[in-house]
């Protein structure tokens, strides 16, 4: 099991409830993407399946769970269309592999692993029907069964009622663990019928501990770019380009200068990215600038925000106070336009000129 940095007390609570036979059959764990929700869920599942329910690590069940191969540990997760069966089973090997490499797996890293196109992750009704079928069978071990369902917020609306039925009519010795990153998108009836558990967010210090085998500058960069999303940082740690620092730096400098020819060139370059990559860039642009403003207020040393390609602290210092909120609004509007399928070059061109005005405080 991966190390828990900030939520060991939560896992202890869950373990105590299980030991006292008070653990609810359906548990909803809320966590930020790439944080400790999946780690908590996997650790709880292993404990439920352990022959002694103490996560001994030595019994056959523990060894099977540790490699995600226990016959009574069922996974469900969002995926893209195009598989043979139309269920998560088409991507189960990929999912186990991704989790084996990174227990803090985040949605963007998962999507990039299974598709290079602008396909949306979803959990269709056929997948919920498949879950019903699996859980209706007798447990292979004759003991407990666990369904770990990642990102139930991606379930299609018509399928949510079928999941609700599964939660409302619990099967014997069957536990459901839902790991959500957007609890507000779930049906209120699903939320109300699950025991709620909330993960505390990770902090930059946890990144420095996790990446203590890497150069300090690299650990600080990953923390600055991704905190609190440790999963994305782990995925990016072997590929510096995936941080998008250089792309962000070039775009912001171009917008700050405001030369129409330069903006046209950078827009053409950005429009060559996939739509999902563009959305991630905009999210990170907001994050970079937010962290820069935060460090300015806290008087953090300059090197903490020096990312090589750009110094976020200096960039955010150059922004007039009246433009700070405008920058956030512009990036939010651009993201909204992309989600509405507005022409990419049109959305980026408008956003770039609006960013220029915001940088200048106009």
Key terms for this structure?
362 residues, Rossmann fold, Zinc Finger, Delta Prime, domain 3, 17 helices, 5 strands
Tally of structural domains: 2
Unreliable parts: none
Helix content: 40-55%
Please write the CATH class name of the largest domain. Answer: Alpha Beta
Largest sheet: 5 strands, parallel
Remind me, CATH topology of the largest domain? Rossmann fold
Question: Can you tell me about this structure?
Answer:
By secondary structure, the protein is of the alpha/beta class. It has two domains: 8-198, P-loop containing nucleotide triphosphate hydrolases (Rossmann fold); 244-359, Zinc Finger, Delta Prime, domain 3 (Up-down Bundle), CATH 1.20.272. The chain has helices spanning 8-19, 37-49, 60-66, 92-101, 107-114, 125-135, 157-168, 188-192, 204-210, 216-226, 230-236, 245-257, 260-270, 275-298, 312-318, 321-339, 344-359; strands spanning 26-30, 73-76, 145-150, 174-180, 195-198. Helix 12 (245-257) runs antiparallel to helix 13 (260-270) and helix 12 crosses helix 17.
């Amino acid at each position: 099991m991966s190390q828990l940095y900030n939520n060991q007390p939560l896992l202890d609570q869950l373990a105590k409830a299980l030991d006292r036979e008070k653990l609810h059959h359906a548990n909803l764990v809320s966590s930020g993407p790439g944080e400790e929700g999946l780690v908590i869920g996997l650790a709880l599942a292993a404990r439920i399946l352990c022959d002694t329910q103490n996560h001994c690590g030595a019994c056959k069940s523990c060894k099977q769970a540790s490699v995600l191969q226990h016959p009574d540990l069922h996974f469900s997760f969002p995926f893209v269309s195009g598989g043979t069966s139309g269920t998560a089973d088409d991507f189960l090997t990929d999912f186990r592999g991704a989790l084996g490499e990174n227990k803090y797996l985040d949605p963007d890293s998962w999507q990039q692993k299974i598709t290079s196109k602008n396909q949306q992750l979803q959990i269709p009704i056929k997948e919920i029907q498949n879950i019903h079928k699996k859980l209706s069978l007798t447990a292979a071990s004759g003991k407990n069964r666990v369904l770990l369902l990642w990102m139930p917020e991606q379930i299609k609306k018509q399928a949510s009622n079928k999941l609700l039925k599964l939660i409302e009519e619990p099967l014997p010795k069957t536990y459901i663990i839902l790991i959500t990153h957007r609890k507000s998108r779930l049906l209120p009836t699903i939320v109300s019928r699950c025991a709620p558990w909330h993960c505390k967010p990770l902090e930059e210090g946890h990144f420095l501990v996790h990446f203590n085998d890497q150069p300090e500058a690299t650990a600080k960069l990953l923390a600055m770019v991704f905190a609190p999303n440790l999963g994305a940082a782990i995925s990016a740690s072997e590929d510096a380009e995936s941080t998008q620092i250089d792309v962000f730096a070039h775009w912001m400098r171009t917008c700050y200068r405001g030369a129409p020819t330069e903006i046209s060139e950078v827009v053409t370059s950005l429009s060559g990215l996939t739509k999902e990559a563009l959305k991630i860039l905009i999210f990170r642009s907001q994050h970079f600038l937010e962290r820069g403003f935060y460090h300015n207020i806290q008087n953090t040393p300059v090197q903490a925000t020096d990312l090589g390609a750009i110094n976020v602290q200096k960039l955010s210092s150059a922004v007039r106070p009246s433009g700070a909120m405008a920058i956030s609004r512009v990036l939010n509007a651009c993201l909204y336009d992309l989600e509405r399928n507005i022409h990419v070059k049109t959305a980026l061109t408008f956003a770039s000129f609006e960013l220029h005005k915001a940088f200048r405080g106009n």
